[in-house]
């Protein structure tokens, strides 16, 4: 059959076959799948998104301290064992209730007003009566507060003392108290003998002025040595205002010596400017109440 085909047609058939073969090669190349591109962006976008934590805003300065205290308290509540084990060696016992109460700002202001009124009474005994007539609400409430605290503690002591009426009357009448302890004679084989001697002038409980009525010069009572401190505390509580009143008179004399021709109000202000003097008396007041609490607990 090939012998019957002309040469020109044979050449064209070869060309067509060659073109067909090339087209097949090109088609095969284009049919290969493209190599996938690996990008970190697509890979990360396919991962499940985790829940984002909201960052708590920084509190304003006034609330920052409160937030920190709440956070520290919640931490200690959630892990008490860790907190206690780490601070066992640094643990301080809590202060007595009376101490914590007296350390408040309100209590310090109350005592300061109490002292201011006592200085005024020391300068003018009629001050108390004038304030009561005018229903004063600036100083009188503070004095009543301190008086109430002293009276409440005095009643607590009475429950532990069971005082004889004559002895109780003497404790409340005489502003001065002396403890006398002496050994009995060795031949009798006795132990120490304790007595309480009371003397001093009577005074008016409201004006704090010395009373004109005369009382016995002194009285002595034999007492139980183990209760001497209780008797002394009771006496100190009952006569506290009078004793501080005498201290105020001494401070007034000291101020008047340094500053002559001063009015009553100016003297009161100068006395109250002696901050250390007021703070020392406040500290002793707290110690007195703490001693009562310890004895009655």
UniProtKB/TrEMBL annotation:
Region: Disordered, residue numbers: 27-95
Basic and acidic residues bias (residue ranges): 55-71
Coiled-coil annotated spans: none
One Pfam family from the record: DUF4211
DUF4211 domain mapped to chain residues: 85-208
Top-rank lineage group of the source organism: Eukaryota
Biased composition annotated in UniProt, kind: Low complexity: 37-47, 72-85
Family matches, as InterPro entries: DNA_MethProtect_Complex, DUF4211
Alphabetical list of PANTHER family matching this protein: GLUTAMINE AND SERINE-RICH PROTEIN 1 (PTHR14709:SF2), GLUTAMINE AND SERINE-RICH PROTEIN 1-RELATED (PTHR14709)
Protein name: DUF4211 domain-containing protein
Organism: Cnephaeus nilssonii
């Amino acid at each position: 059959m090939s012998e019957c085909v002309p040469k020109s047609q044979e050449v064209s058939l070869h060309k067509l076959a060659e073109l067909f073969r090339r087209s097949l090669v090109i088609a095969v190349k284009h049919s290969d799948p493209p190599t996938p591109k690996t990008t970190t962006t697509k890979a990360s976008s396919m991962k499940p998104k985790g829940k984002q934590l909201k960052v708590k805003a920084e509190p304003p300065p006034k609330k920052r301290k409160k937030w920190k205290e709440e956070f520290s308290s919640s931490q200690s509540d959630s892990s008490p064992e860790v907190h206690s084990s780490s601070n066992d060696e640094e643990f301080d016992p809590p202060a007595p209730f009376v101490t914590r109460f007296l350390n408040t700002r309100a209590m310090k202001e109350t005592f300061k007003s109490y002292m201011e009124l006592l200085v005024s009474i020391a300068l003018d005994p009629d001050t108390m009566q004038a304030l009561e007539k005018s229903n004063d609400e600036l100083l009188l409430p503070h004095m009543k507060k301190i008086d109430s605290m002293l009276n409440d503690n005095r009643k607590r002591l009475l429950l532990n003392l069971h005082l004889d009426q004559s002895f109780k009357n003497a404790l409340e009448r005489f502003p001065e108290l002396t403890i006398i302890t002496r050994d009995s004679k060795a031949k009798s084989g006795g132990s120490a003998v304790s007595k309480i001697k009371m003397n001093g002038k009577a005074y008016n409980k409201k004006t704090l002025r010395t009373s004109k009525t005369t009382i016995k010069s002194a009285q002595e009572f034999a007492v139980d040595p183990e209760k001497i401190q209780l008797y002394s505390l009771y006496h100190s509580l009952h006569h506290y205002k009078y004793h501080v009143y005498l201290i105020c008179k001494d401070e007034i004399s000291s101020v008047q010596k340094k500053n002559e021709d001063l009015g009553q109000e100016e003297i009161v202000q100068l006395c109250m400017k002696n901050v250390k003097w007021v703070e020392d008396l406040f500290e002793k007041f707290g110690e007195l109440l703490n001693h009562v609490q310890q004895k009655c607990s």
